[in-house]
Specification:
Length: 310
Amino acid sequence: MAAVVLLVPVLAALALWAFAWPAARTAPHDLPLGVAGPAAATAQVQKQLEAHEGAFEIHRYADEAAARDAIEDRTVYGAVVVTAQGPKLLTASAASPLVAQSLQQAVAQRAAGAPMETVDVVPAAADDPRGSVLTSSVLPMTLAGIAAGAVVTLLGLRGRRAVAALVGAALVVGTVAALIAGNWLGALTGSWWPEAGALALSTLAVSAAVAGLAALLGTPGIGLGAFVVMMLGNPFSGASSAPEMLPAPVGVIGQWLPPGAGASLLRSVSFFDGAAAGGPALTLAWWAVLGLGAVLLGSALKRRAASVTP
């Protein structure tokens, strides 16, 4: 009774902190933003942006073409271009609709009595302009990974059989998720196979971590793995905004965990032709490899212990 009375409020407090605190502090924190044009012409614009202390990380570009390339490469989330006709704001709602909207509010000052021209260089899917489907996919992929890891453990699968089950489940989940999000809902606009692969890898990273911890620690490993990816990975993912919109160091931590890396990878392969996909893909691969390695190691340790037991 004492454990229940004390543990439940602690878990509730941790959940409230993990989910509510980053949401309450959502704002630009060193958000990469470009400024393009002649140095003399952009000096005033850059000064105005730097007045938002700590909000933007300014990148300088020679012209609009270079700024567009930087946006498409996911180096910056947007750019202010100074032209002879006046300043122009470039955004990428595919990278984050919330960031695109925030930039319009923070940057698009009225010029000569008229609104600043805004161009969406990499728009979100027409059927999902707010990115709701992609954002909502983070939780199901996390839950599917936790469920797969838990089921493999509770069914007593070990070694190669457990690895095969985890990989097979991830492939099926990735395929079904890509069919629903891309083909049915029209929220993903890239090549289907990379999108399915990204969703499958995201699921495998979670399921392998949960099963690997369970193989080494026993049943409590399921709870530990679920806590890390659900209570920390999900709210710290930045999927609904951007990692740079979360307070430090939450945004960075979130990209080290499967939900955040999975959301970033899916955006890259779906809207940016794979630009900046290497980092998230490597993060997910490390989680998957280490988790599957732990599954094999745990099975080997149990066989060894059984062989020496009289």
